[in-house]
Give the backbone structure.
Amino acid sequence: MSDSTTFEAKADILGSFWIQYKSDPEYADFISYNDLGLPLAYALSSEIIELTPKAKLFIEETFDLLLGALQIEDEGFESLEDLLLD
């Protein structure tokens, strides 16, 4: 793995996380708090929206919060599965 996760991978990971876990009670607080960053990441990774500087800030912050919630360091993840297996 590389030193840190690329922005494109962050958006893909967050988009996948949102789709797979948005109804999971275990992550309800995280999903609720990141009610903008997660759908933005999904929309960006699905090519529904174009990247803007503000959207990038929300996605970067949401990814950092996800790593914090899972208590892991950024090791250059390539997918949600890669991140969850850490």
